[in-house]
Amino acid sequence: MYILGISGSPRLEGNTDLLLENSLEGARSRGAETEKVILNNLKFSPCQECADMLNNGNCKVKDDIQQVYQKVLKADAVIIASPIFFGSLSAQTKMMIDRFQCAWRGKYLFNTDIFASKKRIGAFISVEASERQDFFDNAKAVIKNFFSVINAVYKEEFFCAGLDEKGSVLRHADFLKQAFELGLRIC
Ligand SMILES: Cc1cc2nc3c(=O)[nH]c(=O)nc-3n(C[C@H](O)[C@H](O)[C@H](O)COP(=O)(O)O)c2cc1C
């Protein structure tokens, strides 16, 4: 199994990154091959709604997001991890998702579903400083739309509230364990 983790946090070794890493470690302990993409390290533009957009599910803008399409294509499971920023996904996460509009267009308007090759497992991890369930719900609604475009079933979620300082999740062994177990369950 090849499991792709996508981190939408700008903080390396921040709460999102650490939880995602624990879930990937859980998957690796079951023999899965894993890879982590840190969106903040990629150079890509937000969707430009090109007037001459392709109809075949692909994006004509050649930047680092092209490698994400290839990794998602290969993935048996995709774990998206994003902090809550202003009540929803981080900009990095949303920017990546918008770049899948080409796939949405191919799938729903032109009957060319580039992710149809397999049914994927989708998981969502999120972290916030407050205790607002509605923020997680906002983010989850977008992730569900994204998963339907990449032919992934929304199978697992793990939301951690009350974490703000960088790395403060390390003081919560239970959260780290639950993230690890999410990785186990995916396999
Ligand atoms: C730009 C920005 C916006 C944020 N907005 C929210 C918010 O709306 N609600 C909330 O509970 N926490 C908010 N936070 C706090 C983060 O969700 C929190 O610090 C989280 O632990 C960061 O995860 P990270 O370490 O993976 O980056 C915000 C933080 C930043 C930097």
UniProtKB/TrEMBL annotation:
<dbReference type="InterPro" id="IPR005025">
    <property type="entry name" value="FMN_Rdtase-like_dom"/>
</dbReference>
<dbReference type="InterPro" id="IPR051796">
    <property type="entry name" value="ISF_SsuE-like"/>
</dbReference>
<dbReference type="Pfam" id="PF03358">
    <property type="entry name" value="FMN_red"/>
</dbReference>
<dbReference type="GO" id="GO:0016491">
    <property type="term" value="F:oxidoreductase activity"/>
</dbReference>
<keyword id="KW-0285">Flavoprotein</keyword>
<protein>
    <submittedName>
        <fullName>NADPH-dependent FMN reductase</fullName>
    </submittedName>
</protein>
<keyword id="KW-0288">FMN</keyword>
<dbReference type="InterPro" id="IPR029039">
    <property type="entry name" value="Flavoprotein-like_sf"/>
</dbReference>
<feature type="domain" description="NADPH-dependent FMN reductase-like">
    <location>
        <begin position="1"/>
        <end position="132"/>
    </location>
</feature>
